[in-house]
Design goal:
This protein is an alpha/beta fold. It has one domain: NAD(P)-binding Rossmann-like Domain (Rossmann fold, 3-Layer(aba) Sandwich), CATH 3.40.50.720. The protein is built from eleven helices and 15 strands. Bound molecules: nicotinamide-adenine-dinucleotide. Nicotinamide-adenine-dinucleotide binds next to helix 1, helix 5 and strand 6.
């Protein structure tokens, strides 16, 4: 098992906060880091409504008022190498969690530039800053944790997806950038001794989630009385992972940095972090509808069949995602356990308050 790292009293840089996962992580870190300093860095891009990012940022600020740890928000892009160098020199983070990215599979078809800018150039800047954090004998960054994605499995037909599987058949530019990040991180880890862990997230959902993701956009459409479209005629299965499970997993990971194991290896590891329990899209939509009715967002006698359209497969999409979670459980003693109904209930309750 990896080298243990204390988070208490440490300086932790979280890029992509106040994004969905970043905001939830920072709130948890503020609770756990005692006298530490948590730095959020985000360019507040308008890929989806920035009001939601402001809402999450307000939640972080509120959390920081009752915590021992300090919080600093820096508005800027990881693609800005001068800014990133300055942030690392000024704050000297012990741990870096890179969640900043242009997310979304379908958007990459029409907006390729932003994926290259944030996911490739931005991540390269983070790696360079980690590399130079050791200059002049400084202790530097003790662990870099970065977001990869289940989309790297692309054209794989073997399920569940294991980190041992080949992942050189991405079916979207987004997936290709995430796979590239893993390769870049491996090379930097090998060359400069940066302890680094990549996490392949599987469809994360929950309160204050991302409006571009299916459960959220479906909620908005159903609430307006519009129809939702089930691609591949509903024959899709997704390994949904509830946000609190992701945060618990992330926290365990960032406290344990991989170590080099012989001259051929690097202090670099990649894990799946997913529910390990894929759900049929049609079942997911039924449970979502029931929970939206329960939360008062949809009327009691809402007829879902009148609001569903079937369509063929979309480019860039995968018919099934299914995480093999054995390695994660072995190394971190944790497997996501939140049931879909419980997770969607919390989402529906949050949504009904948010839209009021
Ligand atoms: N949510 C999921 O299901 C999921 C699944 C797989 C992978 N991921 C990955 O996890 C990470 C977090 O995802 P999320 O769901 O919280 O997405 P999110 O879009 O809510 O958060 C990402 C944040 O990064 C910021 N950002 C984008 N480009 C930036 C740049 N150049 N500089 C600084 N900030 C920038 C955005 O403003 C946003 O707030 C991303 O790397 C994403 O690709 C998420």
């Amino acid at each position: 098992m990896g080298k243990k790292i204390e988070t208490e009293g440490k300086t932790i840089l979280v890029t992509g906060s106040p994004g969905f996962i970043g905001a939830a992580l920072v709130k948890r870190l503020l609770r756990e880091c005692g006298s530490g300093h948590i730095i959020s860095l985000d360019n507040m891009c308008d890929y989806y409504d920035t009001a939601l990012k402001e809402h999450r940022l307000a939640g972080i600020e509120k959390a920081s008022e009752v915590c021992g740890a300090k919080h600093t928000f820096i508005r800027g892009s990881i693609a800005d190498s001068v800014l990133i160098r300055r942030v690392f020199e000024e704050y000297r983070p012990d741990i870096v969690v890179n969640l900043a990215a242009q997310a979304g599979v379908r958007y990459s078809i029409d907006h390729p530039d932003t994926y290259i800018e944030s996911n490739i150039i931005g991540f390269y800047n983070i790696l360079e800053a980690c590399r130079h954090s050791y200059d002049n004998g400084s202790e530097g960054v003790r662990h870099l944790v970065y977001a990869s994605s289940s989309s790297v499995y692309g054209g794989n037909t073997e399920i569940p997806y294991s980190v041992e599987d080949k992942t050189d058949m991405p079916v979207s530019l987004y997936a290709a950038t995430k796979k590239s990040d893993e390769l870049l991180a491996y090379a930097y880890s090998k060359l400069y001794g940066i302890p680094a862990t990549g996490l392949r997230f599987f469809t994360v959902y929950g309160p204050a989630g991302r409006p571009d993701m299916f459960y959220y956009s479906a909620t908005e459409k159903l609430r307006r009385g519009d129809a939702i479209t089930l691609f591949n005629y509903g024959n899709c299965r997704r390994d949904f992972t509830y946000i609190d499970d992701i945060i618990e997993g992330l926290l365990r990971v960032l406290k344990s940095a991989p170590e080099e194991n012989g001259s051929l290896s690097a202090a670099h590891a990649v894990y799946n972090i997913g529910g390990g329990n894929p759900v049929e899209l049609t079942e997911f939509v039924s449970v979502l509808t029931e929970e939206l009715i329960r939360a008062g967002i949809l009327p009691e006698r809402f007829d879902l069949t009148e609001h569903v359209r079937m369509a063929g497969m979309q480019p860039g999409d995968m018919t099934e995602t299914y995480a093999d979670t054995e390695a994660f459980e072995r190394d971190f003693g944790f497997t996501p356990e939140t049931e879909i109904r419980a997770g969607l209930r919390t989402f529906a309750e949050w949504y009904s308050m948010y839209v009021q």
